[in-house]
Amino acid sequence: MKVAVFSAKKYDQESFSQWADSRLKFSFFDVPLDKHSVKLTQGYAAVCVFVNDDLSQPVMAELKTMGVGMIALRCAGFNNVDLAAANELGLRVARVPAYSPEAVAEHTVAMILCLNRKLHKAYNRVRDDNFALDGLLGFNLHGKTVGLVGTGRIGVATAKILLGFGMQLLCYDIKVDDELVKAGARYVPLEELWAQSDIISLHCPLTPQTQHLIDEKSLALMKDGVMLINTSRGGLIDTKAVIKALKSRKIGYLGLDVYEQEADLFFQDLSGQLIDDEVFKRLLTFPNVLITGHQAFFTQEALQQICQVTSENLLAFKANKLSGNEL
Ligand code: NAI
C-alpha cells in the first residue's frame, strides 16, 4: 500500500523507513499537507500526517478525489482534523493515542527545573567565565503546590514525577483518576487550582471547551509570580493575555513547548530569516520565558512507538480491519 508522508523530516524518514516492508511503501514529502500539496496524493491509498498538517473539509474532500482512503496521524492530538467532515467523506482517521507519555512528562519537568534554577542563563554565563550567582536564585520544589489541568496519560506521568519531588498535587479533569488520588493528589475546581498553585501545567487536549483556558480571567485568579507550563497545545493559552501578565509580573515564569501560531514557525530552520510574528517575537524578549519548538515528544522511544503504531494502523486499514485507534 502506498502511503504519502507529509511534513516529513529527516528523523521521520529514518524511523519510518525501518518499518517499510512489502506491505507498506512510504513516500516522504517535506511540505505540510494543505490545499496546494494535496495534489501530490494522487495514487496513494493513505496519508500520514502530523500536528500542523491541514485536515480541514476542503483538503479532505480533495484527498477523497485523489483516491486516498485513510488519514494516519502520527501524533496523539487531533484538533487539526475536521472529524465530522472525515466521517461524511468516508475517510478513515486513526492516531497514535499514546507514545511514551513519559517523554512529554519528562520534558515538562525539564522546563520547570530549567526555569526555576535558570539553567538556560547559567549555561551561557559559565561559558563566558562568569561564575556570579546574582540573578540565578531559585526555589525548592519540595513542599510547593503544582496544579495539573488534565490527568490523562501525560498528566499522570507528570504527576508521578512531581510527587517524587515532594510537591503537593492539585488536579482538574472532567474525570477523576482514582489511582492518582490514592497517590496523594487532590481534585479541585479550576478556580481553586488557579488560586492555590505555585506552578500550573496544562495536559488537557485542545477542544472548544479548553480553547483559551488561560485568559485574562483565569490569570487574574492566579498567585503573583506563578509558573505556567504548556506542553499540550498552543490554543489553550491566549498569548496576548499571557504577555500582559508577564509585563505585570503576574506570571513569574513561562515555559512553552507549543504556541498558537506554531504552524508557521515550528519544525523548520528559520535562522537567518525575518520572523513576522510580532507576538512570538515579544515572548522571546522576556528573560523568564523558555520556549522549545514542540519537542516534548521527541525521544527515541517515542519515535519508535509512533512508527510502530502508525504502521499497525495502516496495516489494519489495508486488511479492512480496525486497529482500535480509529477516531
Ligand atoms: P489523554 O487523552 O490521555 O488525556 C487528556 C486528559 O484531558 C483526559 O484525562 C481528559 O479527561 C482530560 N480533559 C479533556 N477535556 C478536558 C477539559 N475540558 N478540562 C480538563 N481536562 C480535560 O491525552 P495525553 O496523552 O495525556 O495528552 C494530552 C495532550 O498533550 C494531548 O491532547 C496533546 O495535545 C498534547 N501532546 C503534546 C505533545 C508534545 O510533544 N508537546 C505530544 C503528545 C501530546
What does this structure look like?
With 327 residues, the protein is of the alpha/beta class. The protein folds into 2 domains: 2-99 and 300-318, 3-Layer(aba) Sandwich (Rossmann fold), CATH 3.40.50; 101-291, 3-Layer(aba) Sandwich (Rossmann fold), CATH 3.40.50. Helices cover 36% and strands 15% of the residues. It is built from 12 helices and 12 strands. The chain has helices spanning 10-19, 57-66, 83-89, 101-117, 119-127, 153-164, 178-182, 190-196, 216-221, 239-247, 278-283, 300-318; strands at 2-5, 25-28, 46-49, 70-73, 92-94, 145-149, 168-172, 186-187, 199-202, 226-230, 251-256, 289-291. The strands form 2 sheets. Strands 8-7-6-9-10-11-12 form a 7-stranded parallel sheet, with helices on both faces. Helix 4 (101-117) crosses helix 6 (153-164). It is globular. The model has no long low-confidence stretch (mean pLDDT 96).
Order of helices and strands: EHEEHEHEHHEHEHEHEHEHEHEH
CATH superfamily of the largest domain: NAD(P)-binding Rossmann-like Domain
Main pleated-sheet profile? 7 strands, parallel
Q: What percentage of amino acids are in beta strands?
A: 5-15%
- Calculate Rg over CA atoms: 21 Å
Whole-number total of structural domains? 2
User: In the CATH scheme, what's the topology name of the largest domain?
Assistant: Rossmann fold
Termini separation (Å)?
Answer: 21 Å
The name of the CATH architecture of the largest domain is: 3-Layer(aba) Sandwich
CATH top level of the largest domain?
Alpha Beta
